[in-house]
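Lab notebook, design round three. We kept the backbone fixed and only want residue identities now. Task for the bench partner: fill in a sequence for the structure below.
Input structure tokens:
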């Protein structure tokens, strides 16, 4: 409910901001999806809620078909889908290389970014979420440029050490990786899960990257976040499974920011997701069956 309310509020902000060029047309929403979308039930529910609660129509278009149904007004930069102005573009894809199989997908992404539509996420905020940026923010000096000293201290209290391979690793870190590789994980600049390197693969890749390769900038080294394991019952395929498990907590939030006016319209927490997985599972995706959603 709070997600749909936030999306509607965003559309209203767009409508007020560009009222003069909308010419009394009601802007709607575009959801960019994969051609073969594997999570269609959730997306259909979101479309129904937006329509029923706020009379907002949600178009669903894949990047490779975007050019057939869209155009951008050269004088206003408004994005239109089937003749309807679009206020919000919600990306359900465009996070992995497979989403950009050809020139059509890359051109579509560029066209959307150049339009006035509010992107979720925009390219700058998407890049800000990359692992390399997270690693830089783990540095106390870098973090201190964005928050107060007290806030930085609190945040650093829940951080783990992260390192990039474009600079020499501290000798004691290289030694630890060699003797206890399971205490670390190597993460590439990728989203979507399933791309991390674990266990003995960590020490092998560190040896290669420390030796100096063109791939050094593609990865970061991160200490494993310490967790407390307990025995839990999980329901999988209508079966009760009892395993030693750990929890992973994710926080959902929404931020609407005007980069030109440097103004926040919204910056709030919307909810959380607590998932539970066996302690010996590296990956934790719910859709992949590695974990289950937990109740609190």
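Proposed sequence:
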């Amino acid at each position: 409910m709070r997600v749909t309310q936030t999306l509607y509020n965003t559309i209203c902000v767009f409508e007020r901001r560009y009222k003069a060029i909308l010419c009394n047309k009601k802007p709607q929403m575009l959801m960019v999806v994969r051609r073969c979308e594997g999570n269609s039930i959730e997306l259909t529910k979101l479309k129904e809620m937006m329509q029923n609660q706020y009379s907002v129509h949600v178009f669903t278009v894949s990047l490779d078909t975007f050019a057939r149904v869209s155009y951008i007004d050269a004088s206003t930069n408004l994005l239109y889908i089937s003749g309807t102005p679009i206020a919000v573009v919600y990306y359900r894809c465009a996070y992995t290389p497979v989403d950009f199989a050809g020139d059509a997908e890359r051109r579509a992404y560029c066209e959307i970014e150049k339009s006035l539509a509010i992107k979720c996420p925009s390219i700058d905020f998407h890049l800000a979420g990359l692992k390399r940026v997270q690693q830089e923010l783990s540095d106390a000096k870098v973090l201190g440029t964005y928050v107060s000293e007290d806030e930085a201290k609190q945040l650093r209290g829940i951080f783990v050490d992260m390192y990039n391979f474009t600079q020499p690793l501290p000798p004691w870190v290289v030694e630890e990786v060699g003797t206890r590789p399971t205490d670390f994980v190597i993460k590439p600049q990728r989203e979507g899960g399933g791309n991390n390197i674990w266990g003995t693969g960590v020490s092998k890749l560190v040896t290669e990257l420390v030796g100096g390769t063109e791939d050094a900038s593609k990865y970061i080294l991160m200490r494993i976040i310490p967790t407390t394991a307990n025995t839990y019952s999980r329901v999988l395929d209508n079966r009760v499974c009892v395993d030693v498990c750990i929890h992973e907590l994710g926080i959902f939030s929404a931020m609407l920011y005007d980069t030109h006016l440097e103004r926040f319209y919204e910056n709030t927490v919307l909810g959380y997701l607590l998932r539970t997985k066996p302690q010996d599972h590296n990956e934790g995706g719910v859709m992949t069956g590695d974990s289950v959603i937990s109740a609190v």
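Keep this in mind before ordering anything: The chain has three domains: 2-128, 131-223, 230-293.
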